[in-house]
Specification:
Its EC number is 2.7.13.3. This protein has 353 residues and is an alpha+beta fold. The chain has ten helices and twelve strands. The chain has three domains: 110 residues, PAS domain (Beta-Lactamase), CATH 3.30.450.20; 89 residues, no CATH class; 149 residues, Histidine kinase-like ATPase, C-terminal domain (Heat Shock Protein 90). 46% of the residues lie in helices and 23% in strands.
Length: 353
Amino acid sequence: MTTEDYPFELFFDLVPDLLCIAGFDGYFKRINPAVSKVLEYSQEELYSRPINDFIHPEDVSMTNQRRSQLFESQPLLNFENRYITKSGKIIWLYWTAWPNTEKKLVFAIAKEITEKKRLEERKDELLSDLSHKNEELKSLTYITAHDLRSPVSSILSVFQLLNLEKIKDEESVELIKLIQRSTLGLKENLNKYLNKLSEKDSNNNKKELVNLSEILQETLITLNPTLKSVNAQIKHDFSQAGEVYFNRLHLESIFLNLIGNSIKYRKTDVAPQVCIWTEIVAERIFLYIKDNGQGMNMEKVKDKIFKMNQTFHGHSEAKGIGLYLVNSHLQNAGGSIEVKSEEGVGTTFKVIF
């Protein structure tokens, strides 16, 4: 078959990408229908005016600079610039071009990437907004932890002034000691948070081998007054996996939030029960935290449960931050979290390390 047997003209006209032949003088010499369709000008209008007339004014200088390289037999690859259509819309084109210096022609093909650029800009905006919110949250956490130390220290000073020997009621003495231990635990946690926030960002996600029983016991000490007041039962079994490689402070936050939620959203007529256990599946460690609390309607909350400022039970202390933090800790470490819940039955969280 000869070249005449191939319908090159048909190919040129039907290709949806922008095909053009331009002269070194800066004018179109041949264009396919896609060029007219995208730029909204007739072929006569496009042939009669310099190409620079259609380019966004801010991109003309850059385009001329890259075009001059074509005149030196250098191909143009991966070049993006903006054009203005006849109706005034700004569009982005992605160019590849080859020069023919003998005939002083440039053969070029372009794709419209306006939507792609819009999505990239939107992504950059979202990332910037997320970064800003993360910095605000970090600052708020630092301020909160720092400012809470003063009243906590004041409470501990009051305990030092108390003479427990003068208090005859043993139950009152035990209650005072319990409050004192809880306050000391709060102070230790605040100091840990401040120390963590003071570290360099590069060390914020530092991982180490963490004993799950130790983390659980520290969590139970922190929650002890609340657990006692509602007669909560906590059962655990870490026989399959007793240690995980994870950031210690973040793991403490995960335990505190998930167990704390089990107590916060308990049923009023039943003592809360929380079962915690681990499994190893396909060399990954799964941590389960199951309760017999109020549960949730998963059809209503499944797309919101781990987002910021989402609350589902109308609890006065609910702020919609805890599960967001849990999910963020896990995602930053390459893990994930899943949830199963039924109203009136309870909730099970599955943490995947």
